[in-house]
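Protein entry
_____________
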Amino acid sequence: MASAKEIKREKILIADDSEMNRAILADILGGDYEILEAADGAEAVKILQEQGHGISLLLLDINMPLLDGFQVLEAMNKSKLIESVPVIIISAENANVVAERAFNLGVTDYISRPFDAVIVRRRVQNTLNLYGKQKRLTELVEEQIVERQKNNAMMIVILSHIVEFRNEESGPHIQHIRIITELFLRALPSVAPQYNYTPEEISLIGTASSLHDIGKVSIPTEVLNKPGRLTPEEFSIMKTHSAIGAEMLEKLPMYKDEPLVKTAYQICRWHHERYDGRGYPDGLKGDEIPMPAQVVALADVYDALTSERVYKKAIPHEKAVEMIKNGECGSFNPILIKVLDKVSDELYEKLHNPDTSDDDEDMHKIAAEVMKQKQITASSRTLSLIERERKKFQFFAGLSDGLIFELSYTPYMITFMNDGAKRLGVKDIVLNPDKDEVFLKNCGLENIKEITRILRSTTPEKATVEYVGNTMFDGEVRKCKLIAYAMWSDDEVPELLGAVGKIYQI
């Protein structure tokens, strides 16, 4: 029986640009859930793309840099993640129009700040319970569908094997044809982008390929299993199997209009056609032959060459590939010859070493995931953040009127409050200020370099700095003074996190 520590916890992603808000929510929920954090909308979308359905719930703020909450929701709608990952908005935006837009984009719940811890826990749990029941129901339905598809595919393979057994070729021929067909279809777009089959279409064509020789049930045993070369009359009888197989499918009382049956019809009837028009039964030429039938035709020839028959020994892989490329087995689409060249090594591996597994790759993924995990004492972190916020506002209170700003080094950005950005002629949030042309022009490259130097010379004990310089202020170049307070981490080896301060005209 698994211990409590071995039980996998549900993942909750908290997306909020305020580290304080993230820390408080992590404190409220962290004991029961695995918490992931995003400091902006772009980071939230990246985590959702990487982990997808592994996220059980998203707690989302509206006002964030890079991408706001609405843009995150739009991205989730585009990828259809909104259907499986519930979203609770936690925001100070209380306007009805904001809530209505959020609900229209698919959010499950909306909690206004300031919030109550009990309410947050209860709503999170209720949402997870609801989606958990829906997920279990969906999985049950999917399992039933998969089981039915598996049974259908099994019946097709069994029927095909009955045909092959009668032909004394009951070995892995059917399996080989499917493997080769699907391998070629997956590689086709790299050679001919117009043949870009979806995974579902490739699976359907692979299943249909199992029926390619079903018409052989009508061929007399003495012709079907003759150990020597067939006479012209016997070969004429043998050639009828492709048209007969197609006719059997065409005359099905039900399902004849299903995509699987239509594809199987094409493969049955035309897998002996050749690109130069010298095949049978209809003498189709070039692209008149549907691509699925062309692929199965090549697969059938390759497997016939490399397999032992009552009338021949198996030919080595390299020799078989050369024979097909040289036209010794009939004419094939030049595109498929290029694909054969491209997948030759993989084809050999799949047919001769089918047990090759991806265990090593899986182990690397697991190891990487384990290495990403970090233990965080949420309560200590929150207390540290509270103390940092206290220092900020204590510092602001002692300053005269001016433009309030906050500098962060991770990510590297400056945020201006109130109308500060407008008065300086820059954006409210300036990302990578050392590369922002407007910011550098209005505030001055030399000013930025000097302020950066001064801030990096501070210590946690001596954190306040002053600087005087000329900058754009209310549309004119004026002499201004900057007073800033450097923010340092509380680590054993302190790290400069950024600064808060004011700029005012002298």
Notes: The longest helix spans residues 117-166. The domain at 379-505 is CATH 3.30.450.20 (Beta-Lactamase). The two ends are 72 Å apart (CA to CA).
